[in-house]
C-alpha cells in the first residue's frame, strides 16, 4: 500500500495535531503542518512534495482556498471543515473530497482509499476559484443612500429602539433592519447566537471568554469590547464557540 505524503493546513493547533496523528496511524507521512494561508503560500513556492493537502476551509486572514486558487500545479485537495454547508459546496465537484470535524478514522480511511485510487485529482485554478464563495454583503445606511458591508467583518448585531446596528468591534453601522429576527432570517447558515434579547453574536469572531457573574460569561470580540452572555444562553454560546474553533 502506497504511503501518501500529506500536508495538513489548519489554524487550530489541536485540530492539526489530531488529523496528523490519524494520518500517521493510517500509514501516511505528514510532510508539514501549517497554521494559515500565508504559510501555505510560502510552502507552495518552495520545492516540496505532497500527494494531498488537507485544507481547513475557514482560517483567519488569507484563506487556504484563496491561496490555492492563485497557485498553479497544486496536489489534490481534501477540504476539512466544521460546517456541512461548505462541505456540500466543495463536493459539487466529483474530484473533490471533504472531511467534517471532528475527523474520525473510518471516514478518513475512505478518503485515503479514494486518493490511492486516484479518484481525487488536482483542481485547475478555474475550478478552485469557483469554490471560493463570493463575500456575503448587506446594506448599511450612509446619508440619504446606502453602502454595502461584508458580513465576515461584523462581530455582532445590536438592537436599539427598533433599529439594528451592525457592529465591528467598537464601530457601529445602522442597517435597514428593525429586528434581530430579520438578521437571523437573512443569514440562516451563519450560526449566529442570540446572547441577549438585544444582542446577536457571530461566534466565529470571539477572541476569548471569561467568567462574569454566576452562570454567565463575557465574550471578547475585539480589544476592549466585551459582551455579556445571559445565563440561559451561556451553555449554548460556549458550545458554538468551541464548534467554530475546531
From TrEMBL:
Instruction: Enumerate the spans annotated as Response regulatory domain.
Output: 5-116
Entries under PROSITE patterns matching the protein: RESPONSE_REGULATORY
4-aspartylphosphate modification, residue list: 56
GO MF annotation terms: DNA binding
What keywords are annotated for this sequence in UniProt? DNA-binding, Phosphoprotein
Q: Which SUPFAM superfamilies match?
A: CheY-like (SSF52172)
Q: Which InterPro entries match?
A: CheY-like_superfamily, LytTR_DNA-bd_dom, Sig_transdc_resp-reg_receiver, WalR-like
Question: Known PANTHER family for this protein?
Answer: REGULATOR OF RPOS (PTHR48111), RESPONSE REGULATOR RECEIVER (PTHR48111:SF69)
Q: What is the name of this protein?
A: DNA-binding response regulator
Amino acid at each position: 500500500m502506497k504511503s501518501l505524503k500529506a500536508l495538513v493546513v489548519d489554524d487550530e493547533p489541536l485540530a492539526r495535531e489530531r488529523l496528523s496523528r490519524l494520518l500517521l496511524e493510517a500509514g501516511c507521512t505528514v510532510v508539514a503542518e501549517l497554521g494559515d494561508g500565508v504559510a501555505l503560500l510560502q510552502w507552495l513556492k518552495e520545492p516540496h512534495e505532497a500527494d494531498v493537502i488537507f485544507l481547513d476551509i475557514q482560517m483567519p486572514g488569507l484563506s487556504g482556498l484563496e491561496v490555492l486558487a492563485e497557485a498553479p500545479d497544486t496536489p489534490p485537495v481534501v477540504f476539512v471543515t466544521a460546517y456541512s454547508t461548505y462541505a456540500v459546496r466543495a463536493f459539487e465537484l466529483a474530484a473533490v473530497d471533504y472531511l467534517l470535524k471532528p475527523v474520525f478514522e473510518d471516514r478518513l480511511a475512505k478518503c485515503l482509499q479514494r486518493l490511492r485510487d486516484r479518484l481525487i485529482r488536482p483542481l485547475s485554478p478555474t475550478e478552485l476559484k469557483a469554490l471560493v464563495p463570493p463575500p456575503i454583503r448587506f446594506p448599511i445606511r450612509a446619508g440619504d443612500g446606502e453602502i454595502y458591508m461584508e458580513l465576515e467583518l461584523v462581530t455582532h448585531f445590536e438592537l436599539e429602539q427598533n433599529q439594528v446596528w451592525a457592529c465591528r468591534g467598537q464601530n457601529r453601522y445602522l442597517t435597514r433592519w428593525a429586528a434581530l429576527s430579520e438578521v437571523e432570517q437573512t443569514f440562516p447558515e451563519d450560526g449566529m447566537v442570540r446572547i441577549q434579547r438585544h444582542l446577536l453574536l457571530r461566534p466565529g469572531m470571539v477572541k476569548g471568554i471569561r467568567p462574569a457573574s454566576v452562570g454567565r460569561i463575557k465574550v471578547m470580540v475585539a480589544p476592549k469590547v466585551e459582551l455579556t452572555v445571559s445565563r440561559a444562553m451561556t451553555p449554548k454560546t460556549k458550545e458554538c464557540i468551541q464548534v467554530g474553533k475546531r
